[in-house]
Amino acid sequence: MLVSAKEMLDKAKAGHYAVGQFNINNLEWTKSILATAQELNSPVILGVSEGAGKYMTGFKTVAAMVKAMIEEMNITVPVALHLDHGSYEGCLKCVEAGFSSIMFDGSHYPIDENVAKTTELVKLAHDNNMSIEAEVGSIGGEEDGVIGAGECADPQECKAIADLGVDMLAAGIGNIHGKYPANWAGLSFETLDAIQQLTGTMPLVLHGGTGIPEDMIKKAISLGVAKINVNTECQLSFADATRKYIEAGKDLEGKGFDPRKLLAPGAEAIKATVKEKMELFGSVNKA
Ligand code: 13P
């Protein structure tokens, strides 16, 4: 069932668990994530970066594929199709394409401009029954060409953006996209706590979910995080399983070169990663 992310995230925030956003790149990714969510009876958010949208030939292709897969696979758990780190123009395109949720990443604008653009997009999203995520303070590292310095968000600015009526708020708290460096200082729970105190029931979003230790994930959920984004970890699992298949020479045995066989270990590896995360985030049986 394709739905806005609002209800699933409000329930997660109230129930002290988090819904995973898993980014998709192609049909295999989407199929693996949807199958796992259904098997575990978990709500799920499919994240699409602007780069991944382009790779899949455009947001309309993505929306059509996801809607058809939900129907053909008999997926009954709530699924949100969400633009990840969208530009203003990207948000407009996803509204038109039939996504159910958008993220407007205005974190690189001065706060007044972020407020103005977010206000406009909140109205547009809600007029179209879609949920909207905004961002304050940038996530470090690089996500498909979106580069952030990784500064912690100002809790007052978070409140200003939350008060615009967004459905979820991403706040930089020392989190980084991609692999964490060995000298990473960890998440700033002080910042997270201050943000949650000012934003109340607003579901908070933790980007850069790859490689955050379990105890930090659990603490972040206890301080109001209700959505956790994971991208790199599925890519690493997929690449690792595919490499093992090829290194074992399996593509050279019989019809092992058939793409349905060649891509199968990677697709299974994505399922295992998604399952592990859903169990850790506490979203199993919360559909
Ligand atoms: P990772 O690639 O670090 O898992 O981050 C994903 C993310 O935050 C998508 O917005």
TrEMBL record:
GO terms for biological process: fructose 1,6-bisphosphate metabolic process; glycolytic process. Keywords: Lyase, Metal-binding, Zinc. SUPFAM superfamilies: Aldolase. Zn(2+) 1 binds at H85, H177, H207. Pfam families: F_bP_aldolase. Its cofactor is Zn(2+). Zn(2+) 2 binds at D105, E135. The active site is at D84. It is an enzyme of class 4 (lyase). GO terms for molecular function: fructose-bisphosphate aldolase activity; zinc ion binding. It comes from the Bacteria. Binds 2 Zn(2+) ions per subunit. One is catalytic and the other provides a structural contribution. Its EC number is 4.1.2.13. Dihydroxyacetone phosphate binds at G178, G208, G209, T210, N229, V230, N231, T232. This is Class II fructose-1,6-bisphosphate aldolase. It comes from Roseburia zhanii. The gene is fba.
